[in-house]
Amino acid sequence: MIARMLKTYVVARSANRRRLLEVIDLILTRMLQPAGTGYMQFSLDFEPLPAILFEVEWGSDEEPEDGVARPLSYTSYGHNVEFAWLLLHAADVLGRAREEYAGVVERICRQCCELGIDWDCGGVYIEGPTDAAPTVLHKQFWQHAEVLIGMLDAWELFGDERYWEAFCNVHRFVFDKFINRAGGGEWYALLDRDGSVLWDYLGHAWKISYHTVRSMIQVCARLHNLLEKQR
Predict the structure, then answer these.
(1) Can you tell me the distance from the alpha carbon of 189 to that of 138, in angstroms, rounded to the nearest whole number?
(2) 3-state secondary structure the chain
(3) CA dihedral defined by 197, 190, 174, 123, rounded to 10 degrees?
(4) Nearest CA-CA partner of 188 in 216, 169, 207, 215
(5) Cross-strand pairs, 74
(6) CATH T-level topology, domain 73-230
(7) CA-to-CA distance for 199 and 196, rounded, in angstroms?
(8) What confidence score (pLDDT) does residue 61 get?
(9) Contact 79, 5 (CB under 8 A)
(10) Nearest to 72 by CA among 25, 131, 26, 27
């Protein structure tokens, strides 16, 4: 009985490893732009599509921009950096060196630092062209949660101070602007560029603690590990 259970575990683990490698290969070969950042939407056979703005954006009702699609060059800073740190985590799970994916991670995090981080007011923009400044300057909660983790990983991997500065920038903006301390510490959903609250509710169909709580757990773990390495 035990031998059969162990065999089942080994087979399942092998299958999961194979599937994970397949997903990584699919993303790296089909879902990234030449610059290394991600396309936003695809057809069923993974041909990149100009991204449309849905009538419901992250669970909040908005008027649709009928017939208006963002160019293929548009990318999501939050999704890109989230992918970067999850890719590094996948490397750990697979037992591979993080340096194997360093080129992809560096391109993504560099682009976010150059165009996605608001170095004047703080925080992370929602999305924008791969090679030009964003035109929509609002800030959503979840991009900040993911960029906090990704920038810590980038700083540890590359030792480049701009990634630490980006982490500190976003950290300050989150704790100064996003957190509703009177509402149990939950984050607001959407802010204006300067941190003014645009959507004052703390939850909706798309907004749960998935991003925020995970981010704080992951950030605390990384800061602890980095502190231990300094001792």
Answers:
(1) 11
(2) CHHHHHHHHHHHHHHHHHHHHHHHHHHHHHCECCCCCECCEECCCCCEECCECCCEECCEECCCCCCCECCCCEEEHHHHHHHHHHHHHHHHHHCCCHHHHHHHHHHHHHHHHHHHECCCCCCECCEEECCCCCCCCCEEHHHHHHHHHHHHHHHHHHCCHHHHHHHHHHHHHHHHHHECHHHCCCECCEECCCCCEEECCCCECCECHHHHHHHHHHHHHHHHHHHHHHC
(3) -110
(4) 207
(5) 129
(6) Glycosyltransferase (1.50.10)
(7) 9
(8) 47
(9) no
(10) 131
User: Distance between CA atoms of 177 and 163, rounded to whole angstroms?
Assistant: 21
Rounded Cα distance between 10 and 221, Å, is 29
Pairing assessment for the beta strands 190-191 and 60-61 based on DSSP bridges: unpaired
CA angle 26/103/106 to nearest 5° reads 110
> Which pairs from 9-18 meet CB under 8 Å and 24+ separation?
17/94
Residue 68: predicted pLDDT: 64
Q: Which residue type does 209 have? A: S
**N residues, the chain:** 231
**What pLDDT digit, counting tens, does each position of 102-160 carry?**
999 999 999 999 999 999 999 999 999 999 999 889 999 999 999 999 999 999 999 99
Residue entry with tokens 């983790």: 149
> Distance (Å, rounded) from C-alpha 148 to C-alpha 170?
7
Residue type at position 97: A
